[in-house]
């Protein structure tokens, strides 16, 4: 029994170490509070591309990356939906949005439906290219 427990502990430790190595590849560095944001280029649901410079005048930028298959992401989905609903409700009050803009925090919210529409457009755009190139999922 002791040998079994020792092997079990060794397997768990190995799996934990491997998962950490995969989750944080070589050269990966988490940002600390106060670190400058790295430059990026991301598509918006409005069809425009956004970079860090697009928000140069903003005092606050929140970008949420999530998915629909990860148990952790699913666990936080209701919190993100509530945050979005609260923000939409707050912005519905006439004086609120200009106040955000005045302090350098313009708000651009999108819905899951808008994101789904963007993903459909991307799939329509890229599917023929992927098919013609013979690219197959691994």
Short description:
This protein is mainly alpha-helical and 138 residues long. It has 4 helices and 2 strands, in the order H-E-E-H-H-H. It has one domain (31-133).
Descriptive notes:
- This protein has helices at 2-23, 71-91, 96-102, 112-133, and strands spanning 41-43, 49-51.
- The chain is built from 4 helices and 2 strands; from the N terminus they run αββααα.
- It is mainly alpha-helical and 138 residues long.
- It has a two-stranded antiparallel sheet with strand order 1-2.
- It has one domain (31-133).
- Strand 1 (41-43) and strand 2 form a beta hairpin.
- The two termini are 40 Å apart.
- Residues 15-21 have low confidence and may be disordered.
Shape: globular
Strand content: under 5%
Structural class: mainly alpha
Order of the strands making up the biggest sheet: 1-2
Straight-line N-to-C gap = 40 Å
The percent range for helix content is: 40-55%
């Amino acid at each position: 029994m002791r040998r079994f427990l020792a092997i079990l502990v060794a397997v768990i430790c190995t799996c934990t170490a491997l998962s950490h190595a995969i989750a944080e590849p070589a050269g990966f560095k988490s940002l600390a509070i106060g670190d400058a944001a790295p430059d990026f280029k991301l598509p918006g649901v409005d069809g425009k591309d956004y970079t860090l410079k697009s928000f140069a005048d903003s005092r606050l930028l929140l970008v949420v990356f999530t998915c629909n298959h990860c148990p952790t992401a699913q666990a936080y989905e209701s919190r993100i939906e509530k945050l979005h609903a609260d923000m939409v409700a707050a912005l519905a009050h006439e004086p609120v949005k200009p106040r955000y803009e005045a302090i350098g925090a313009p708000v651009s919210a999108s819905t899951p439906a808008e994101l789904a529409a963007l993903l459909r457009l991307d799939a329509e755009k890229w599917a023929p290219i992927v098919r013609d190139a013979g690219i197959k999922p691994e």
